[in-house]
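Possible regression after last week's pipeline update?

I re-ran a chain I had predicted before the update to compare outputs. Posting the input and the new output here so someone can diff against the archived version. Not blocking, just want to make sure nothing changed silently.
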Amino acid sequence: MQAWQVHENGEPGEVMRTADVAPPTPGDGQVLLKVRAANINFPDVLMVRGHYQVRPPLPFTPGVEICGETEDGRRVIANPALPYGGFAEYALADAAALLAAPDSLDDAEAAALHIGYQTGWFGLHRRARLEAGETLLVHAAAGGVGSAAVQLGKAAGATVIGVVGGVEKAAVARELGCDVVIDRRSEDVVAAVKEATGGRGADVVYDPVGGEAYTQSAKVVAFEGRIVVVGFASGTIPSPSLNHALVKNYSVLGLHWGLYNTKNPKLVQHCHEQLTELAARGAIKPLVSERVPLGGAAAAVQRVADGVTTGRVVVVPGLTDGGAA
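New output (post-update):
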């Protein structure tokens, strides 16, 4: 089979190489899946660079989220068992963790439903307890993680403010349903949020960026507001001032979604049932901005690393370079 491998850490466009290898052999409790679509996540970038908390042994195949097909023909969503990731024709996954791919979504959309939407659901509902009528501020609102949070926020009845970087991403955020869109490149984020909320601020802030975005979040969070820390795409990990949290009476909530797979896997299944229902009635639909053939995976992962993509970029092994499956 064809698979992308990383033999040394570095930038995806430089260190990811294709190889013709034998399909991996399932271990105890594992299944071999034919990859129908593999969604690119920022953790893939960090893993290739060697900066992620999980460091699979070299060489490894990246790709942490797929829509796959079982031997009996079922469409499933899975997190591949590294080092046999999703940017290949076949991948391994834990049989007990397979989730049914919603009939309402195609392969690429189904591949993009899992990590970003589960993270959004747990962050907004389990951690922040977002309520209808509240104001939700989403950083990087046009990205893969942010776009999921925007849709979930709207589905929950919140007013959603999206922060983006650039005119094109602002247009995407509006199409996603943001009530207010702020372009951080041309606007003062803090002033714009305060104007949009009448000076009150945001009840919930969803931050997958860190760095300056977190600094802005602390300035605009409302009384009894909640800042959900999801990741650090900026590369800068902020150091919250707890005296500031005390004086303004807000909460800082960490979210490591992967822990639920071991700490409370039943909640992951429950979340998937909620997401499947939302997808069935059209309340959420992963924004797949690009579908690329397997041969274009390295370049696509590099574009995600460079921050120039919107929504989700999905690798579809059955796609030809001409763009047809």
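Follow-up from reviewer: compared with the archived run. The radius of gyration is 19 Å. Marking as no regression found.
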